[in-house]
Structures are given as C-alpha cells and as structure tokens.
Amino acid sequence: MMKLPLTAAIAAAIFAMGASATPAPGGSPQPVDTAEAIDIGASVLKVRYAPLSRLADILTSTDGDPSRWSPVGDEKNTVSADDSMVAWISAAALATDSARAAAEKLVRDGVNVLVTQRQDGSNHEAKTFGIQVPGTAVMYQARADGSLDVHSSNAAKGADRATWQALTEHAAQTRESTSAQRVTAEAEDRPTGPFKRYHTWVISPANTGAAVGMDITVARDTSGNNDRKVVTVKAHARAIPFRNGLTPSGWPQTGIDKEFPFTNHGMNKLLYTVDNYKLITTLSWPAGQKPNVSAAHQYPQSTSATDITFTNTQEKTTSFSWGISGEVGGKVSAKGIEPYGKLKTTVGGGNKSTTTNEMSMTVKDYSTALSLRDDSNSKRVTWTFDISRAIKGDVKYFNAPEKYPGYVEVTKLTPMMRAADLQGYSEWILDGSYEGSLTIASIAEIYDTVWKNTTNTNDTHMDWPQKAYAHLAKPDPQFPDTHQPVTRITIDLGVPQLARYPVVLIQSMSPNSTCLTQSGAGTEDIKLAPCVATEQNLSQQWEFDELDRYVNRGSRMCLAAVGGKAVAQICSTSQAQKWVWRADRIHQVNNLQHRLFVELGIVRSGFIQGVHQDLPVNTSHELLPPWNNYLLAPFKGDFIPGFALPTDVPESYLGYRQIGTDERWKTIPMVNGLY
C-alpha cells in the first residue's frame, strides 16, 4: 500500500523527543514517552500520532491514555493513502495559551485532533476552540469549508473496543464523505463571513446503534438597521428503543432478577412498540444573561398525516458589510493583498451569506406535532411523533390468530415502530451584541406502549434500558428521565469570527514581524509582541469600524495617535482615532502625511522629513501599490497596477525612493476561510 508523509503543516512543526523504555526498580518496563512536541517557544504541546484506522484498538489497549501509546516503526511518520493521522492530546496538555494556539492550528491545518482524559470543570478546550462539549473523549475535525465536526464519546474507564469504534468509525465516515481535510480545498472555495458552523455527533455508549447529531450555524446579520445573531439548528437522530418486540415478562421488572430477551419474530405474551418519539432541541444561556432569544422558524410543522415524506431545503440568508464587495475583494486579493480589516465598514449589509440544510424524512404510522416552550433561561422546540390513533385505538391490532389465545405477534410491526430516523430544523434570533455563551442540545426521547392480547394496556412510559445496558446508558442531567444519547455544545458567541466588523491582527513588516498589542485592558500602552492568532488572544485583535477606528477587542478602546506615539484611548469621535490605508501603510485621517511606523521598537505616528515620503494613491484602489515595483523605487517603464490595463508611471514618480519596512503593515484576518 502506498505510504504518504504527514501533511507538511505537521512535519514542519514537529520534532521528535527521543526516548526508550527504562526498567523500573522491579524490572517491569515503564510507559515509553514517544510524544512528538510542537515547538511553540515558551512551551510545547505533547502530541501522539495514531492512524485513524487503528485508533479504536489503540484506545482500547491504552484505556484512552495517550502516555501509554508507543508508535511502532514509521507509524508516527506515515499513513496509508486511504487513512489519516490523528493528533492525540490529553486535556491537561492544553493548559497554556501557547499549547492551545498549537492545537487550534493543527485543527485549522486539517489534522484530526483527539482530546482524552477530560476532566469536569476544565475550560481548556473552550479557550482553544471556542466551544465546549461533554464527554470523556472528543475528536475535532475540520471540514474543507472551515466548519468543525465534533465527535464525542462517553466511553468509561475500561470501555470495550466497540465503544471506541463507534467514535472512530464516524470520524472516518466524515473524512471520506465530506473531504474533511481542509488542506485539500482551495482558499477561494471557502466561504467567508461572520459565521461559525459546527457538526456534532454522539453515539449511544450502550452500542444500540442510537445516535444524535446537530448541524449548527451561528451567523451575524447586519442587514438594514439590524444587528443580530441568527442560529440555525438541524437536529438529526437515529432513534432506537432499548425495549422493543416480544417478551414474556412485564415492565418494570419488579421482583424479577433475570430479564427475558426481546425478540422480533413469532408471538408471545407481551409486545413493546414505540408509542411516540420526541425530537427535542434546546437553547440555553447562563442565568442573569439576557440574549433575547426568540424562535423564528421551524420545520416540519404539525400535521395529522400518518404517511408522509417531508422533503425541503431550508435556506437562511444573512447580510453583512465589510467595506468591500466580494468582487472587488477578490480582485484585490488576486494581487496578493489582504483587504479585510482595512476599509470602512458601512451600515446596512452589502454582502450575503446563505446557510442551507437539506431535509428529508419519511414518517409512517405516526403523526407530527410541533410545540415550543419558554423557560427563564432556555427555549425548547419539540417534534412529537405519535402512533396513529387508528392503531392505538384498535386493542386487537397486534393479536395473534384466535387459535393462539392470549398471544400477540409482530407481523404488523412496521419499521418506524422499531426505530426512526428523525430530523427537525429550527431557526433562532438573538441580540447581535450578546457575546456570552449559548448551549445547544438535542435528544430523541422514546416512549413505549405495552400490548397484550385483546387489550392495549395504556402502559405508556419512557423507554428504559435493559439491565445489561443500564450502567452504560446513564441519564443526562438536562433530560434525567431518558437514557438515550444527548448531543450538546456550548458556543462562545464572543469569538472574533462573529464580530460585527472583520477582526484582524495588525502585523508590522519590520524584521521582527510582531503585532500591535494593547499591553493591558484599561492601559494606554500600545506595544509590539509576537503574533498569536487564537480566538482568545483579545489583546491583539482589532476591529475596523464604520467611524474609521481600530477598536481593541480586549479593552474596547481605540487606537489613537497622541504626541507622536500610538496609544489606546477611550473611543470617541476624535480625529486622532481615525485611520486610513494607503497600500500597506496606515495613515491618520486628519493628517494624511502621518503614518504608523516603528522606531527602536516603539510604535509611533508621524512624518519624519527625509525618511518618509508623501506617496501617491493608486486610483484603481487605495490598497493597491502606487507602482508595480513598490517597495523598491519606481523606474522608467514601470507601471501602475490596476484592475484593467496597467498604465505607465509618470515622470513625476521617478523621484520616489524605496519604502522602509518600518512603515509597512499587513493584517492577519480572524475570518472564516482566511486564517
């Protein structure tokens, strides 16, 4: 089988920590520390690499402990063409900012990252990926469009291979069906805009085949005078009851030590069928917070039809304005220039972003009822699928032939009475300015009915696991009456990708390539520091707003020029806080000769005679260089770049000199599809 090296993004970042087995005092070998380490300066992120195809076996043999995994031969360096490598990390390894930055970059570079040994109360992953999901193990997998798949497992200590296999199989299917490795996608194919997309999936630890997932989009919508966040959730579940089919014993099993198995052939004294399914999606937020969540739209709607296929495409379009159209932005980007975070953002929204969810669900022998519920800090939508009244009202519906008195049979048991594939779409609106957390959860609850010969007992109750599964299928605190799997994700709505304006880091092109940083919230000090493009590094994140101001996301203070220095001030309409880009230089609006520059490590704003030049502006677009040979001095025969045919530089340009790196800047966008 052909072998492929690890992606260049990994190979360039990793060095081996050589180690060998060392006998313990008693003579037994100790675990070998064969971790790779990503060099991130002040700290390292210990990573073990394992092939996805073998991951279930590895997790079983190590009980989910990465320190017990020792790659053999070239396993840590190569992977087969139809396989992928997983970066395996313990949750404790994400305790530092630098380690979290490295882990986030691995995911963005298309590497599957598995985090195990997770502890309750730790928020390391929330600080790394901007989300938190429950479970003992979670795999983060980036899709080609920049969205994030989150596969979680509640595998307990000592879990068998089948439990781990459920996690790894779904990750493999996602990789194969959606081209999850982002490195295979061209940058221009990735959608941009103020949104985040997540795909969650949880499989029942009882290995019944039951599973539930969500496709979630959170988008900022600034159309017209609006400023809101729009949340769309497609919940989908494979709902499979624990108790279904024929059995000789009743429920609950009072006084009976041994449980009789359920069968789906022949006849017996009792028949368990699904009375109703409930597909539930909830949105909740911390007590005391007021995001003003409202339900906007749901699908499917209620219907009494008991033989229906719901087929629909749910589309939600949101608008935003980033100061540049997609067409012009593409032309500027084609010149190798990053336009985002450099142009005034107008109110009203000139760009569009559309979220599409394909819905297809067949419901037979069950009706559909939609309901909404409001609580103090949560909202809930429930789709209830009730068994047909014609069936439930016929007490002899499942009776065996009369020659078998007292028996019921399964000949009329249809597929949806055994299991169901359910889908529900909901759309929610909340305040755009809300930057707290939002928890979204979905579950498929199941209620059973017990049938006896000549009677429907009306014994309808929550489906409950058989004793063999009870220790695995533990109830969820939010849904304490059911043992079905729950998928839940807590999303930080304050991440830069959901900001109203494009969020960027502003990097100096002087030799150290450091970024503008507000040294502390509430201080005026602006300094240069190594660039760290992570969601939680607010001190280096800047928004360019509709008033031409750079607003720091950590302090909400504005970049200003005071006394020849760059400082942070409380935001106002002061001209000292307004900036405009000319090619790769940042100028003061109230004095276009003055520009940001670096002098002996200090960020200044001004104009030094004999050093700086009053340069012309490209008439095609202010972000384009004034001449093609820009950085170096123009020469006779040089031309002015543009979107149409270039024009020769005039004689007056030939007196301009080379431009120093001390006054040149670039932006690093914290925008979907661009970082």
Question: Which key phrases capture this entry?
Answer:
disordered N terminus, Trefoil (Acidic Fibroblast Growth Factor, subunit A), 3 domains, eight-stranded antiparallel β-sheet, 10% helix, twelve-stranded mixed β-sheet, mainly beta, Leukocidin-like, 675 residues
Describe this structure in words.
There is one protein chain. This protein is mainly beta. It has three domains: 1-186, no CATH class; 191-321 and 353-499, Leukocidin/porin MspA (Leukocidin-like), CATH 2.70.240.10; 500-669, Trefoil (Acidic Fibroblast Growth Factor, subunit A) (Trefoil). The chain contains nine helices and 40 strands. Residues 1-34, 39-43 and 179-189 have low confidence and may be disordered.
Q: Which bin fits the share of residues in helices? A: 10-25%
CATH architecture tag of the largest domain: Distorted Sandwich
Count of discrete structural domains: 3
Cα(first) to Cα(last) distance is: 34 Å
